[in-house]
Amino acid sequence: MEAKQNFVPRNNENVISQFWAKYSPFWPVFILLIGVAIGGAWFYLQFKLPVYESTATLLIKDEKKGTEDSKVMESLNLLSSKKIIENEIEVIKSRTLLHKVVDELQLYAPIFEKHQWKDLSAYTLSPVRIEAQYPDSLVEVNRVDFTYNQANGTVNFDGKNYPLDQWIVTPWGNLSFSANKASHQFKGEYYFALIHPKRLIMFLSKNLDVSSAGKLSSVINLSLKDEVPKRSEDILEAIINGYDRAAVSDKNVLAEKTLAFLDSRLRFVSKNLDSIEKHLQQYRANKGAIDISAQGKLFLQNVSDNDQKLSDVNMKIAVLKQVEQHISSNESGGSLVPSTLGVDGDPLLTGLLTKLYDTELNYEKLKRTTGENSPELTSLAGQIEKIKPSILDNIHSQQLSLEAGKRNLFATNSSYTSLLQALPQQERDLVEISREQNIKSSIYSFLLQKKEEAALSHSSTVSDTRVIDKAESSMESVGLGSKYIYVIAIMLAILLGLALITAREIFTGTILFRSEIESIVPYPIIGEIIMEKSKSPLVIEDGKSSFIAEEFRMLRTSLYYLNIYPGSKKILITSAIAGEGKSFIAANLALSLAMSGKKVILLEFDLINPTLAKKFGMEGSRGVAEYLDGTVEAGEAIRVTKQNANLFIMTAGNLPHNPSELILNKRTEDLLYYLKDQFDYILVDAAPVGVLSDGYVLSRYCDATIFVIRHRHTPKIMVERLEYNNKINELKNIALVFNGVRSRGYNKNQYGYGYDYIHNQQKSRQTAQLR
């Protein structure tokens, strides 16, 4: 009856228990790594400064989402324009605006105070501030130590004293030191650095977060993280103020151009009006004309009304001509002043002009922050090109309409002129002069009104933004706190420990765990023998109680799994390579069986490197080699051991030059047949089958095979080839013994498989189970 060869190992162990059993023996490694990680985290926290986040909130008028002005504010702020939130976000983050912030706050010249672990920024504590005359020409420098003498108000660096508030020529550029009135600290060691503004602009652009509060909101949120809360607050405030100044500046430019246009027209009309008034005065003086008749007054009134209409038409035509010239000239936005002076009666043209102005203004702003081929810039340019033809078409249409109205007014004037012929000559001349005077006076009043409106709008120019929340820093630092850093450091240490242990076990290439054997081959593992130091290679003795002795007793019991019974009792013991302890297993298993009252014989068929004779102290005796070559008979080569009367041994004898051929001798089969009737157990110690074929030859005459695998010694590839080789050269009824199992890590009583047996016997110092 043969044992089952399709053995499937049970794998019902809890995953957590397996994990704990695998890694817990290396607890000192984890403790060391965790200690190093905590120390590294502590040092990191000493050098790492806390980071604070400053935030501000800004409300911007958006033509789609913004709030509407009141009627009073709208009438005062005639030059205002609605804005698009997305464009304004780009303007706020523009390099031009950030450059002004860097120059305004002198961020290119940070000052630091020396400390034990990490030098701290002295933004608020520095006794002086540094300004560069030409920031864009600065030569960068990492550190320049200086001292400040408050008594005489001088700064000393490079061995020289320099006064405050004066330009100093230095190797890095022209610098000026000024007293920091906000600081009251004058002790400490300081140094300053110089950074090119472009580098700071890139840093701010990367770290400045500008976003809309929502899709339907015209509120913009600004945030900036910095190690110095006050500095981030100042930067946000400077950005908001600079943005407001830029917006107001754009309005002022438009207002100034409007006023300049109105002034030029007023000067021209005023000059004509003065000339007409002098002519009237001279006419009255020469002709003595003092008054005109009632008919003349009525005529003058009608003609004046008609002339006023004609002057309005002429003014509109002139303004439309100015607008047409501006549109056709492809000038930049910001100068569309004529759109506010005479065409207010046409809402379509006014809307188109306002839209063109806003689009061109957004185009110029976006052009400062993006490249020429930017999709957004190209889109705005396309919108401008689409709006201009519509404006020109509208202007031409209005010009035709105004010309028709002008012809009608001229026709009316002609009728009035014919009526004027009926008046006396003197009265007629006076009416003509008064008529021209009224026309010029109306034009002058109209221009003067527009100038007052533009001046009032200019004087009341306000920003299109409103600060909802001023810049304010968080009270607590943002990012990972010290607790999280320690937790992360510990987790990284544990993961590193797991990785190191796993990598060590993966790349060894030898068998480390029972589970590896069970996953590679289907053969049962009937015994595990620990690595134990002993004075004698024979660890089984009468009256001796030890853990390894108990393991051999368990192995002896497990032989029943191989179906060893009185008619089937020949056991082959072999391994893959030398040094796996097969002879050690054979000797102690035989001794254990003999101590149980069984008559056992141990045959040493390892004719290449025999060690059993030495283990039992029987060197020099005749044995298997002599029997196989016919020199002696079996009874002459069998000897009883001094360790136990039930244990007999046939040593290898003198080593032959042709061991494999001797084993193929028929006397091998005769020997085993003869011993079968004499002994209860026959243990055959054969040479490793991974090197020699002797084991496969002997397996033909045996009933079962014990294949020895040694912990940290047997290559995995040899175990993987065992099943394949067994299909070609069969080893009967294979069972495995895992030998030399060492303690994992630093736990002397932990072997990776749940052993908790503790014995108090004195441990010896010599390893005797290598072979």
Structure explained in plain terms:
The protein is α/β, with parallel strands linked by helices and 771 residues long. The protein is 48% helix and 15% strand. It is built from 22 helices and 21 strands. Helix 5 packs across helix 7 (229-287) and helix 9 (347-369) packs antiparallel against helix 10 (375-420). Mean pLDDT is 78; it is low at 1-12, 66-79, 332-341 and 746-771.
Structural topology:
Elements: H1 15-23, H2 27-47, E1 52-60, H3 71-76, H4 85-92, H5 95-105, E2 111-113, E3 120-121, E4 128-132, E5 141-149, E6 154-157, E7 160-163, E8 167-170, E9 173-179, E10 190-194, H6 197-207, E11 209-212, E12 219-226, H7 229-287, H8 294-329, H9 347-369, H10 375-420, H11 425-459, E13 465-473, H12 482-506, H13 514-520, E14 525-530, H14 547-558, E15 570-575, H15 582-595, E16 600-604, H16 612-615, H17 624-628, H18 634-637, E17 639-640, E18 647-650, H19 659-663, H20 666-676, E19 681-685, H21 694-699, E20 704-710, H22 716-728, E21 734-741
Parallel strand pairs: 14-21, 15-19, 15-20, 16-18, 16-19, 20-21
Antiparallel strand pairs: 1-12, 1-13, 2-3, 2-10, 4-9, 5-6, 5-10, 6-7, 8-9, 11-12, 17-18
Helix pairs in contact: 2-12, 4-9, 5-6, 5-7, 7-11, 8-10, 8-11, 9-10, 14-15
Quick overview:
The chain is built from 22 helices and 21 strands.
